[in-house]
Amino acid sequence: MSNRGPGLPKTAAGVATSRGRPKAGKRRRGWKLYALLGVGLPLIVLSLVTAYYYVTFSRMIDARLQGAMQRADPRVFARPFEVRRGQAVSAQQLVDRLNDLGYANRARAQSPGEFTVGREAIAIMPRDGDRRGELLRIVFASRGKTLDPTGIDHIEAVATKEKFHELTLDTPLITALITSAREKRRDVPLAAIPPHMIKAVLAIEDKRFYEHAGIDPIGIVSAVWEYVSGGRARMRGASTLTQQLIKNTFLTPDRAPTRKFKEWLMSIALERRLKKDQVLELYLNDVYLGHRGSFAIRGVPEAARLFFGKDISNLSLTEAATIAGVIQSPPRHSPFNNPDKSRDRRNVVLVAMASAGFISADASARAGREPLQVATRSLENEAPYFVDYISQELQDRHKVTGAVDVYTTLDVHLQKIAQDAVRDGLVRIDAILARRKRQPAQAALVAIDPRTGDILALIGGRSYNQSQYNRATSANRQPGSVFKPFVYLAAFEQAYAQGRTDITAATVVMDEPTTWEFNSQTWTPSNYDGEYEGPITLRRALALSRNIAAIKVAETTGYDEVAGLWRRVGAGTPPRPYPSIALGVFEATPMQVASAYTLFPNYGAIRPLRAILRMVTGGNEVQIEHAQPRTVARPDTTFLVMNMMRSVINEGTGAGARAAGFSRDAAGKSGTTNDLRDAWFIGFTPELLTVVWVGLDDNQPLGLSGTQAALPIWTTFMKRALSGHANGDFQTPEGISLVDIDRDTGMLATALCPRIFKEAFIHGTEPAEVCTLHIFRP
Hints:
With about 775 residues, this protein is of the alpha+beta class.
């Protein structure tokens, strides 16, 4: 029996049934298609976007790495470090300098670049110079042998017992040049960073560093869990060292939502291009560790020097942990600003190192009990004013950028002495000014080798942290009485040119109240102390800095002649040919005054100052043209003035140096400007010339003379700077006669003259008259 419905054909019934079922299948297939498109298309787009950004970021990383893996900043080196027999340096000071050179303090010095500290000697194995690789002993003088227990007694070779006078060690790296962003860094290879420094950073910042591929999913989950469970107020610990490096080096500090995405991709890309050790080296040399003054401190090597005054290779476990602890929050954990918090954070690092198995629990506990001791040294120890001057020279004069090694004239020993002398001198001056309710003073010091013009030490102010203004090179101040030697030189030069014999160091001038008329104006100056000597020789007038005598000499010579001499010297602003020129009423910087004074120890020739000896880039020497000496005056006339300036120190306004124990043959001049605004002292031996200026930045009166403010700083510096050096004497040039004269009259001395002086004269200008003041009267 058929199941077909009545009146329905077979084909029709079958078609109707089959058409109903396919509709449901299409709906299922359509749902799958939409689902596939809804999920797959975003994934495809995301993959394409990710690939695009990965490639883009990879190219960015490649471009940055090309510079990051190669040093791009100039490095500044001082002159080679020398140790000499008789040098006034203590064992600790020598250790500090060896640390500066990157020498490692070991129980036994066995390799080049190592030293050992003993009771009375330091054993050292130099890594440069003629004695490279030879074990030497630097023996210090004992109290029984010398009044100075800190001097070096002798230097000897351990193997041969050979003793020698001096030892030249390495060329000290002052600093990697400060970048335009005012960052200080000192890049070193990873191998130069001690293992405990590396482990301290890994323990507290990224203990899975060698296990992840740039981002750490386990670390992220752990950080999220601690945050969600209330273990931390803020989510921390999710960023790997690689992410930190990317964030601080490659990305801007914005907080855009896409930043973390970029950070992840770039971290993965970075680790695909570099080995783990390379990433770690970049991080340790770049990590931000706070500010010191106006500088950002970058990298653990620079932090080691700043925090502890050590080369990175000499860090102890506790010091390494302190630096690692600063990374999380440099302002909060600074050992200078927050020592208690810094110590607590250091101990957290030590515990983390023990938990990671890097050190034992006992070692962690012992280190945690040690006090936090940071170095008293600051950025001043790296000659920042000098480095700024070098930076300016490179930009303005040499047009050099990039990875260039700059070898300079700086003597790190003299720079440290200069820093100490200025600091101690300002402490004394501040006490005086405080009693007068005045602001603290500023100071500048420039020390040069007058034979070469080399700048050996430079101090531009009391504190570079407080002010980067370089007063040594930029402060235009009136030189005052330090100009007077040029007045007398102009007079001697003119007298020689005119064949006159009446202008000599023994010529007598009247020191008395005098009024000058010039350009329809009158001027009545006075001496500094308001006192007048009456008849006085030019030598004594210069020694006592008598204003009236100097103006009279300038008047006799001609103000134009005096101004012309200074223009030939080429220092400072050209002075106007007025009577006040004799008192230094124009402007010059301490550096310019130092350059001008090289004329005297060089017998009439100006030695242009220089700070850069040579430059090397890419293994090739950069050609430097050094300015040549210029002859400005005759040797014999210059010697007359220099010889007169000896009396400034021996018996004049600079005699305080002798009272303070300075015994070298030296010449100099004090300077005090109107209303006691500026205090100067300039003095020199044949091998060292030093200028000291003291004053206020706002040009208000200091209230102290050059003898009171500048001379003590000069004396302190010169005594220590020349300690251990052989005494040098000024040579008398040809054409000079030495004749016994009476100090008071300037005439030839007799046996009855109570004060006889051996005066210098150019041949033919010696006095012919015998002293008529000290004669026998029956």
